[in-house]
Inverse folding.
């Protein structure tokens, strides 16, 4: 009897201790299994290899992206996930791929040039060899007429030439090394900062109005007019300066998505661009040679999000989602942006399936497309399935959180959830057992402004998006959107840690009695107006 009393007393003390430390009841047994599975049997690098080496790059609308999605579904089915499917949405532009690019300087010296093709531009239709010409644009032209007058004066000069557009950027040697890890103090400061108050609408409107009135032409307007001019005047190739150090090249796209509206265009590494510019400045004749083969794919007008699920049980109508974007830019193989995010989230689902959990809520993986063109895939999905707070569909009510990862290879250090303070507290407690892996908690935001990555599409709709933030490891400095974004840049230990901590949090939200607290009714921050949007990553 006495022994029993002592045992009971001991149990009570343990329970009380737990109640003081945390309100959330964490299933330590499952958390331990998640750790063991994610550490010993990780498939992250295998997934990454296929998504990058086999299917990269994965530009929105390209056959590669669709094939990568089909493979991901097959793979997730093999792991035991259900309901794998490609969900179509209307991209509205043909797909585009670059199949060949050779670039050489042939006079006054012979050498190979390093360049990447700008997406949604045409090929050269065979090898072209011609003289190089440097051209500059008026600084901040205020009207189309100013720009037209300038371009007209160059009309005869550009015909039959390969045109370098703009003075090379001076990229000086930097003596500060980019940060690899965030120290704990910086992460905690971010987690403990009060949520940024959304900028009052009137102030924001006023700012936009002021900008509009005295604004010169936008870069997009300038580029469209310049491209039109180069095509009409018979320029053979357009060259842009990459403007970055150590041969890094970021090649994005012709904003019209129409190959008829641009000349063949490459982005050349700053070092080669500068060399040619300096030779031309000496008044030497420079001859260049290009061979560019690009292809457009009309079927790419329809793009796809990849969806797969672990079915729920007694709360199957409620959904916890997790994902990242599968589409990439085309200069590298899109490893850190964002094959690794997809590989981590697929791993989360694999871990949970492998350890045999039976979640109460449905756990749904989503790998988005069209992110790089403005979070298009996630927006289409939300519109189709959930609607907005102001105009909800039936499934809006049962939505219990969307985890997003999209900041490279760095380990997860914290999360930001769109929701009331209680949502942040619950997530922090769900993550607390993983502090040793580097994740230090969660904070909240009230912002419904779209930008950054796909979790903000959920926030914009008034749904609880959860953005994972990570250690910076080379991401902004080297790999983000560049030709250096490849398999080699992923740190295995970091991504394994991310998958384990996210798996714990996903599982916890799928199991707790009440769904993650959300903004409702009067508490809901004001939504954006039509046409209002942020920048995308
Ligand atoms: Zn990204």
């Amino acid at each position: 009897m006495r022994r029993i009393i002592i045992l009971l007393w001991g149990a009570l003390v343990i329970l009380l201790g737990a109640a003081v430390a945390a309100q959330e009841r964490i299933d330590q047994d499952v958390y331990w299994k998640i750790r063991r599975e994610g550490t010993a049997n990780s498939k992250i690098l295998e997934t990454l290899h296929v998504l990058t080496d086999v299917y990269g790059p994965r530009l929105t609308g390209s056959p590669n992206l669709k094939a990568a999605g089909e493979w991901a579904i097959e793979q997730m089915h093999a792991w035991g996930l259900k309901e794998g499917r490609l969900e179509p949405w209307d991209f509205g532009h043909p797909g585009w791929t670059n199949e060949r690019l050779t670039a050489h300087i042939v006079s006054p010296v012979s050498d190979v040039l390093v360049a990447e093709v700008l997406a949604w531009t045409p090929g050269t239709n065979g090898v072209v060899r011609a003289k190089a010409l440097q051209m500059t644009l008026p600084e901040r032209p205020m009207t189309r007429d100013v720009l037209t007058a300038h371009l007209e004066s160059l009309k005869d000069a550009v015909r039959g030439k390969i045109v370098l557009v703009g003075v090379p950027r001076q990229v000086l040697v930097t003596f500060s090394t980019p940060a690899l890890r965030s120290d704990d103090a910086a992460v905690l400061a971010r987690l403990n900062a009060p949520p940024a108050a959304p900028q009052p609408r009137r102030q924001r409107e006023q700012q936009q109005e002021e900008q509009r009135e005295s604004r010169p032409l936008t870069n997009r307007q300038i580029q469209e007019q310049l491209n039109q001019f180069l095509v009409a005047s018979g320029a053979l190739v357009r060259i842009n300066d990459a403007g970055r150090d150590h041969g890094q090249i970021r090649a994005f796209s012709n904003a019209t998505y129409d190959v008829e509206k641009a000349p063949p265009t490459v982005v050349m590494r700053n070092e080669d661009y500068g060399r040619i510019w300096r030779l031309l400045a000496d008044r030497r004749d420079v001859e260049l040679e290009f061979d560019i083969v690009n292809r457009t794919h009309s079927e790419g007008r329809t793009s796809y999000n990849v969806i797969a699920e672990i079915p729920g049980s007694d709360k199957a109508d409620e959904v916890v989602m997790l994902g990242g974007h599968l589409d990439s830019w085309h200069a590298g193989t899109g490893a850190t942006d964002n094959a690794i995010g997809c590989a981590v989230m697929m791993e989360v689902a694999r871990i949970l399936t492998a350890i045999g959990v039976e979640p109460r809520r449905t756990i749904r993986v989503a790998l988005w497309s069209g992110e790089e063109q403005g979070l298009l895939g996630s927006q289409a999905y939300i519109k189709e399935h959930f609607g907005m707070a102001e105009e909800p569909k039936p499934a809006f009510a049962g939505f219990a959180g969307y985890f997003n990862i999209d900041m490279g290879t760095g380990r997860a250090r914290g999360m930001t959830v769109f929701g009331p303070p209680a949502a942040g507290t619950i997530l922090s407690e769900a993550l607390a057992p993983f502090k040793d892996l580097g994740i230090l908690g969660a904070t909240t935001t009230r912002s419904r402004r779209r930008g950054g990555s796909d979790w903000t599409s959920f926030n914009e709709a008034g749904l609880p998006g959860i953005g994972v933030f990570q250690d910076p490891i080379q991401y902004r400095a080297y790999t983000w959107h560049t030709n250096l974004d490849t398999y080699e840049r992923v740190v295995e230990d970091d991504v394994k840690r991310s998958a384990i901590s996210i798996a714990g949090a996903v599982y916890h939200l799928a199991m707790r009695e009440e769904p993650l607290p959300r903004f409702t009714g009067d508490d809901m921050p004001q939504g954006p107006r039509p046409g209002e949007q942020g920048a995308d990553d």
Q: What stands out?
A: Residues 4-21 have pLDDT under 50 and may be disordered.
